[in-house]
From TrEMBL:
<feature type="transmembrane region" description="Helical">
    <location>
        <begin position="108"/>
        <end position="128"/>
    </location>
</feature>
<keyword id="KW-0812">Transmembrane</keyword>
<dbReference type="InterPro" id="IPR000620">
    <property type="entry name" value="EamA_dom"/>
</dbReference>
<keyword id="KW-0472">Membrane</keyword>
<feature type="transmembrane region" description="Helical">
    <location>
        <begin position="79"/>
        <end position="102"/>
    </location>
</feature>
<keyword id="KW-1133">Transmembrane helix</keyword>
<feature type="domain" description="EamA">
    <location>
        <begin position="188"/>
        <end position="327"/>
    </location>
</feature>
<feature type="transmembrane region" description="Helical">
    <location>
        <begin position="140"/>
        <end position="160"/>
    </location>
</feature>
<feature type="transmembrane region" description="Helical">
    <location>
        <begin position="187"/>
        <end position="206"/>
    </location>
</feature>
<feature type="transmembrane region" description="Helical">
    <location>
        <begin position="46"/>
        <end position="67"/>
    </location>
</feature>
<feature type="domain" description="EamA">
    <location>
        <begin position="18"/>
        <end position="153"/>
    </location>
</feature>
<protein>
    <recommendedName>
        <fullName>WAT1-related protein</fullName>
    </recommendedName>
</protein>
<feature type="transmembrane region" description="Helical">
    <location>
        <begin position="15"/>
        <end position="34"/>
    </location>
</feature>
<feature type="transmembrane region" description="Helical">
    <location>
        <begin position="245"/>
        <end position="271"/>
    </location>
</feature>
<feature type="transmembrane region" description="Helical">
    <location>
        <begin position="283"/>
        <end position="303"/>
    </location>
</feature>
<dbReference type="GO" id="GO:0005886">
    <property type="term" value="C:plasma membrane"/>
</dbReference>
<comment type="similarity">
    <text>Belongs to the drug/metabolite transporter (DMT) superfamily. Plant drug/metabolite exporter (P-DME) (TC 2.A.7.4) family.</text>
</comment>
Length: 352
């Protein structure tokens, strides 16, 4: 009887990372449209990344300072350089590539392509022995099949458009469409998106490694925000040197996108990802990206009236099937605390 009383609590504890990652994908979904509206309004994506992480660092600083005073390890020079590289990968490079690609593609396409991050992260994690594959086990086979299936789905979305699906009603919210010159730069946008996905995958893998030496997620989030903002500011000064007015932000959608991006995406969601990476590993975190694709597609089609192609539906379905084959395979792994787990590289059962 006592076990039944506490079973819901135990169930919530077991699936807490799953629930948190679902909520994180909801947060990312709104980020797609808020940032796109801001860029269509004329805001520079490079300025956006800089301001967003300055704001995020300021918001996260008091929480990191007071809540992790007793658990925050000493910041050595080696750790400082490691966090600098982590910021360079996940903020300065990945996010600037991400928002640059949003200028040349649609939110639906970008969300669909981001589903490759789970497969890329899995492949890199296997190569670096963060993950193992047991081909004698059905779950191990599911990991391989899931990776190949999801990549097939992404190729379907990229190479096959198919007929346009008819909109059921007029858009409820209008977002100014991209100009023809931007739409014709689809190849450029696709290449930037692929490079962005690879950079994000490496960033997720490196997070798991850094967390073992600096297991203070709030502090690590704050450091990454400030370092990433500084690095991005230097990059922005170079790129926008002929456009000083790009730094001026009015009381409009640009300001609201910075506030939302800073609090939710730049601060809260990075912290959530670090926490889940420590508990479940980098591959687990990236597995929930397909949910964002579903949410973005639903909003883009039903609310914003964006064009939806049959190829996107077919490819998206294949991607989701593949990634959740991978998720089922991963559920066979024992939960790993990336902070304390010791690993023998010669042990075939080694995960970390």
């Amino acid at each position: 009887m006592e076990q039944k009383i506490f079973s819901p609590l135990l169930g919530f504890k077991k699936f807490k990372p799953h629930l948190i990652m679902v909520l994180a994908q909801v947060g990312y979904t709104f980020l797609y449209f808020i940032s796109e509206a801001s860029f269509n309004h004329g805001m520079s994506p490079y300025v956006y990344v800089t301001y967003r992480h300055i704001f995020a660092g300021v918001v996260m600083l008091p929480f990191a300072y007071f809540l992790e005073r007793k658990v925050r390890p000493k910041l050595t020079f080696a750790l400082f350089m490691e966090i600098s590289v982590l910021s360079l990968l996940g903020i300065t490079m990945a996010l600037n590539l991400y928002f640059a690609s949003l200028k040349y593609t649609s939110p639906t396409f970008l969300a669909s392509m981001f589903n490759t991050i789970a497969s890329l992260t899995f492949i890199i994690a296997v190569a670096l022995r963060f993950e193992v594959i047991d081909i004698k086990n059905p779950r191990g086979i599911a990991k391989v099949l899931g990776t190949l299936t999801s990549l097939t789905g992404v190729m379907t979305m990229t190479l096959y458009k198919g007929p346009i699906m008819r909109n059921l009603w007029s858009p409820l919210i209008h977002i100014q469409p991209k100009s023809a010159s931007v739409s014709e730069s689809g190849l450029k946008g696709s290449l930037i998106t692929v490079l962005c996905c690879v950079t994000f995958s490496i960033w997720y893998i490196m997070q798991a490694s850094t967390l073992k030496r600096y297991p203070a997620q709030l502090s690590l989030t704050t450091w990454m925000c400030f370092m990433g903002a500084a690095q991005s500011a230097i990059f922005t000064i170079i790129v926008e040197h002929n456009n000083p007015s790009a730094w001026i932000i009015g009381f409009n959608i640009d300001l609201w996108s910075i506030i939302y991006g800073g609090i939710v995406a730049g601060g809260l969601l990075i912290y959530i990802q670090l926490w889940c990476t420590e508990k479940k590993g980098p591959v687990f975190v990236t597995m929930f990206n397909p949910l964002c694709t579903i949410f973005v597609t639903i909003l883009a089609y039903f609310v914003f009236g964006e064009k939806l192609y049959l190829g996107s539906i077919i490819g998206g379905f294949i991607v989701i099937v593949g990634l959740y084959l991978l998720l089922w395979g991963k559920e066979g792994d024992k939960d790993v605390d990336f902070k304390t787990k010791q690993c023998n590289s010669e042990d075939p059962e080694c995960i970390v």
